[in-house]
Amino acid sequence: MTAASLGSTGSVPAAPARRVSVVTGLQNSFTLTWRSVLKIRTNAEDLLGLSLQPVMFLLLFTYVFGGAIEHGNVQAYLEYVMPGILVQTVLFATLGTGLMLNQDISAGIFDRFRSLPIARWAPLAGAILGDVARYVISVVVTLGFGVVLGFRVHTNPVAAVAGCLLVLAFAMAMCWLSALIGLSVKTPQGVQVFGFIAMFPLIFASGLLVPVSTMPGWLQAFAKANPVTLLAAACRGLMVRGAVAVPAGESMLWALGLVLVFAPLAVRVYRRKT
Amino acid sequence: MTDAIRAEGLEKNFGKTCALAGIDLAARAGTMLGVLGPNGAGKTTAVRILTTLLQPDGGRAMVGGYDVVTDAHRVRQLVGLTGQYASVDDGLTGTNNLVMIGRLLGLSRRDSRATAAELLARFDLSEAAGRPVKTYSGGMRRRIDLAASLVGRPKVLFLDEPTTGLDPQARSDVWDMIGGLVTEGVTVLLTTQYLEEADQLADDIAVIDHGKVIATGTPDELKARVGGQVLEVVPADLSRLADVSAVLAGWTSNTPVQDPSGRRVTIQLSKASVLPGIVRQLDDSEIELAEFSLHKSSLDEVFLTLTGHHAEVDGGMAGTDTPREPELAGRAPGGTQGSTR
């Protein structure tokens, strides 16, 4: 029996194609990206979380640590910590990628996708592309509230935007780790737990919130090599002052490395997921 | 015309658990095959293999003429799947869910919207079209799942327990919709634990238990296999139930079964000619009768005979004391009903 012999006037071609073309795969991915973005719009809680978290972190860190670290000069600390909070917020937002994948699997939406004649990689690509929208929201809210608190860009707008793009690029690398976690663990709680275990050392054992020079030697070694330190430094350079080229280059090398390691792993787990 | 669905010797193990121990299934194009079995019989595993979600460990299967393993992508273009594990997105509206699937299937934006609107109307969901699916009731939810599997106008539709957990009204709505699809020429494989559902809807039935097909045939053939007829006796004085059993036991080689509710005795009869004798002996024993009826075996009785246990353990429609739903008889298309009672 062939499809044509049933004589239906359906949308499925009479002679089904054997494979999906890359172009079709990309179209599939964009459709699923649209879905992710639509979900942000309709999920008020997620949107609130994305917005309130950076506000909370900025307030806490600026006013709790600011006085202690910069000898009472809150404004000086804000300049230091602002790019760091930006990095931190977006890194936490990457956990959403894993959470969403995990929910899609347990709710059966992935099985629906897998039963459709679409590219196998499209749901994964769509989820990750869709999350870029969430990261952009995080960046905008963080910067916006930073400005309200008194943060000012000392370089120029183009450099500041470049800083944001750098953070976004790094987040797109990190979200593969999140995707791997989301695809590997059974429950959303598991995603949170393992996500935080991976994120906390990266974020706190870094030059994100405090200068690395205040740490013991062994920790300094870790913190100096930590891509988060590099990324925050590059961002600081692009928005406030300091070196740009070296930390930016190194952090992007890290991002590349993360993608090279975690993307194949995530895709592997994703393919084996049944 | 070859079979739209054909499975030969499908095997699947999950670790040490054997889910499918080599099953054969066949559905002729344009008919409905009912796969009937209790929880854990392997129904879902079979459907997942046939819809390319799972690879079999052994055996092979063709859907629409294509191998589900080596030609999976082609199979996916022909099939639709509705099951509790292949769902729609809770956070999106009914319309957006269907539009998304239309777009994924390569329809233009306009065609996706038109198809979505058409399906929502057909499944009586137009009013809820703009609401997130998480606000839907159980019946609506199942209808949107069904609609989602129809966006691509599948030639072969897999419905994995489409009515489990629905109330009778919602269930009969879903039955109507499924019946309509078969009339349109879609081949349907329906799994169910509800004997009635298979009886009402399916052209052919495969009964599976512990990963094996234990019987196949039309609903009538299956019923005929168990001796065909069931005699049901209710004494006016329920305390004499045991006496009734004793009398009945003398007339056939089958064992009389006392209803768990303690209100009636049933027994399988292979021929109706023993009836006068039974009536006479009951009369001689001075047992006054409230009810005395003969009917074709129901699928539950078939199941009991074939497997030695009732079809459904956790309550529901299949228990012997559950009232059947005569108001649904005659609603189901496919023309297989009307043989029970």
**Beta strand count of chain B:** 14
**Count of DSSP strands of chain A:** 0
Query: What percentage of residues of chain B falls in helices of 4 or more residues?
Result: 25-40%
Report the radius of gyration of chain A as a whole number of Å: 21 Å
Low-confidence stretches of chain A: 1-13
The sequence of SSEs of chain B as H and E is EEEHEEHEHHHEHEHEEHEHEEHEH
Distance N to C terminus of chain A: 29 Å
End-to-end gap of chain B: 34 Å
Beta-strand fraction estimate of chain A: under 5%
- The overall pLDDT of chain B, averaged over residues, is 83
Which segments of chain B are poorly predicted (pLDDT under 50) over 5 or more consecutive residues?
A: 313-341
Oligomer: heterodimer
Question: DSSP helix count of chain B?
Answer: 11
Residue-averaged pLDDT of chain A, rounded? 85
- Tell me, what's the shape of chain B? elongated
Estimated structural class of chain B: alpha/beta
Can you give the helix content of chain A as a percent range? over 70%
Give the strand order, joined by hyphens, for the main sheet of chain B.
6-7-8-3-9-10
Q: Can you put this structure into words, describing what you see?
A:
The complex is a heterodimer of chains A (274) and B (341). Helices cover 77% and strands 0% of the residues of chain A. With 274 residues, chain A is mostly helical. In chain A, helix 3 runs parallel beside helix 6. The model of chain A is unreliable at 1-13 (pLDDT under 50). Chain B is built from eleven helices and 14 strands. Chain B has a six-stranded mixed β-sheet with strand order 6-7-8-3-9-10, with helices on both faces. In chain B, strand 4 (58-63) and strand 5 form a beta hairpin. The longest helix of chain B has 16 residues, at 168-183.
